[in-house]
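Private note to self, pasted from the team thread so I don't lose it. Backbone tokens:
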């Protein structure tokens, strides 16, 4: 059996991240491209998961991240860009970045949305220099029937995270350790 050197491991990880980023619109057409992807994500959520209409109507703001790309080979990372909308109008653009280390190999893409259910949660997000999803957030899980698993406890949470549209070779998608930063596209 052959051993992989640290240099080879880092080169493979870097190549994987580079390839993953190619399809993510990094350096793309800026705000217009992000807004078009956010519009498509918004429409997809309403069509595929009708229960999101209720979440959207109760939320004071929604951060849409239409395409997150993750790749890893021992060391992994992810990146995506999206927009914060208040009353369905874009007010800011954000990037999301994550890093991980451990037993992992592969790549995946997915989308997610953060529903800010209180004005305090939204204000804290917008004021922060860099914001990480914390313990005050709850996950709502879409089922195959198109329903959103947001129970009474979840709907009282300041932030509700919805991860959907996973495709790829890494099992599962998590937002733990993801840092959101305001950008100018």
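Design output:
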């Amino acid at each position: 059996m052959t051993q992989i050197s640290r240099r080879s491991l880092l080169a493979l990880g870097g190549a994987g991240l580079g390839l993953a980023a190619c399809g993510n619109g990094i350096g793309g057409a800026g705000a217009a491209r992000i807004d078009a992807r956010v519009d498509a994500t918004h429409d997809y959520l309403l069509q595929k998961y009708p229960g999101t209409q209720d979440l959207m109507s109760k939320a004071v703001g929604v951060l849409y991240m239409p395409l997150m790309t993750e790749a890893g080979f021992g060391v992994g990372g992810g990146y995506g860009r999206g927009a914060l909308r208040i009353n369905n109008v874009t007010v800011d653009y954000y990037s999301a970045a994550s890093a991980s280390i451990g037993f992992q190999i592969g790549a995946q893409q997915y989308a997610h949305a953060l529903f800010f259910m209180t004005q305090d949660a939204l204000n804290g997000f917008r004021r922060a220099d860099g914001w990480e999803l914390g313990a005050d957030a709850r996950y709502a899980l879409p089922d195959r029937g198109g329903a959103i698993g947001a129970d009474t406890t979840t709907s009282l949470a300041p932030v509700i995270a919805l991860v959907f549209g996973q495709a790829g070779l890494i099992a599962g998608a998590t937002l733990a350790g993801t840092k959101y930063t305001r950008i100018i596209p």
